[in-house]
């Protein structure tokens, strides 16, 4: 007969093992928020659980009912979430929303503020976590909001109007880098640079590089060291690669995002660097592909190595999971999210599976 203390020891060890397994399982499952256009079946922001080991998306639920939340960003402590919203009502202004993130994945509205322009399409947060920048596509304006202690937003503290006498602005995205703010203006074919000076951002230059023709700069990504900027051009279906030398900028590369034999009308959409900075990914709406590029981390130049079907229609946005293992695409018109595995040796993608969700246009880990 075994001594009684041995039975207690077995129970304790089994309990620890079970607890450990639960903790590990929890760590491998993270939230994914999905922004949508609420013109048909969608009601707002949706919440999924994503398995970082298998790439599975499960437990879809409505996190917050809100009008066309088409771009989102977390606060630095991830306790709050901010969205660009189109009201869908010509008598009501478009707006920016601040939400509390609840433990069960739902979102609780803190407040909203006027977007100071029509069709807000992009929000981003500065490195200190104190400012939100919003761009208004049809308004041609960029608005900056201070974040309150409770996570809510103040009224816009600065508004930049990019419209000119003979040019209509379509401000499409912005990004902070240290004490600077860069803005991609699709309408005026320019990347603008603002610099923080005495508490306010001030325009530094009309355009950091000269555009040829009508490329339509939409979104951009900045390398971790700040030396290179990669711009996705919606109309030209190309990537403009820009190198920075102190305060000077120059174009070093221009590459097509499309397959050589494509016959589809196309509008390139989104762009992101891989976690290791060795690869660059972009989405093509029309051709309905993700284009993959090798990136020379020394020279900044890129070379296309793959175009792969998104297994859906009209890929507006995509994201890479925090582990750098999976790439997820939001296909607006086919109402699905496609999951791809990233080959860690060459950056190329392989399709795994997809899930249905209404009118997805933005994905946030």
UniProtKB/TrEMBL annotation:
Any one GO BP annotation for this protein: glucose metabolic process
Record GO terms (molecular function): 6-phosphogluconolactonase activity
The entry's keywords: Carbohydrate metabolism, Glucose metabolism
Any Pfam family: Lactonase
Keyword Cell inner membrane: no
InterPro entries in UniProt: Cycloisomerase_2, Haem_d1_sf, Lactonase_7-beta_prop, WD40/YVTN_repeat-like_dom_sf
Keyword Lyase in record: no
Recorded superkingdom: Bacteria
Any single Gene Ontology cellular-component annotation: cytosol
Family: Belongs to the cycloisomerase 2 family.
This protein's name: Lactonase family protein
Species of the source: Neotamlana sargassicola
Lineage, top ranks: Bacteria, Pseudomonadati, Bacteroidota, Flavobacteriia, Flavobacteriales
């Amino acid at each position: 007969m075994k001594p009684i203390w041995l039975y207690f020891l077995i129970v304790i060890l089994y309990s620890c093992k079970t607890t450990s397994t639960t903790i590990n399982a929890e760590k491998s499952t993270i939230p994914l928020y999905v922004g949508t256009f609420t013109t048909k079946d969608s009601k707002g922001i949706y919440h999924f659980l994503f398995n970082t080991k298998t790439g599975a998306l499960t437990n879809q639920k409505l996190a917050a009912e809100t009008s066309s939340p088409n771009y989102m960003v977390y606060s630095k402590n991830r306790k709050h979430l901010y969205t660009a919203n189109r009201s869908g009502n010509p008598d009501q202004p478009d707006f920016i929303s601040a939400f509390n993130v609840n433990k069960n994945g739902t979102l609780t509205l803190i407040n909203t503020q006027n977007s100071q322009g029509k069709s807000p399409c992009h929000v981003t947060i500065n490195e200190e976590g104190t400012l939100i920048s919003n761009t208004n596509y049809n308004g041609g304006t960029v608005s900056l909001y201070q974040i309150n202690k409770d996570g809510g937003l103040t009224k816009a503290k600065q508004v930049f109007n990019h419209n000119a006498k003979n040019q209509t602005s379509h401000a499409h995205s912005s990004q902070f880098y240290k004490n600077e703010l860069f803005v991609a203006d699709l309408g005026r074919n320019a990347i603008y640079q603002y610099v923080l000076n005495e508490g306010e951002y001030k325009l530094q230059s009309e355009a950091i590089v000269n555009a040829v023709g009508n490329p339509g700069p939409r979104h951009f990504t900045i390398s971790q060291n700040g030396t290179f900027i990669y711009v996705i051009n919606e109309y030209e279906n190309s990537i403009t690669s820009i190198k920075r030398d102190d305060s000077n900028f120059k174009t070093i590369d221009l590459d097509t995002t499309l397959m050589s034999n494509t016959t589809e009308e196309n509008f390139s959409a989104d762009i992101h660097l891989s976690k290791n900075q060795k690869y660059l990914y972009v989405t093509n709406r029309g051709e309905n592909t993700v284009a993959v590029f090798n990136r020379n981390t020394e020279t900044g130049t890129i070379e296309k190595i793959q175009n792969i079907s998104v297994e859906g229609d009209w890929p507006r946005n995509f994201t890479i999971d925090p582990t750098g293992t999976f790439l997820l695409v939001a296909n607006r018109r086919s109402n699905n999210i496609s999951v791809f595995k990233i080959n860690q040796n060459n950056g190329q993608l392989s399709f795994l599976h997809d899930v249905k969700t209404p009118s997805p246009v933005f994905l946030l880990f």
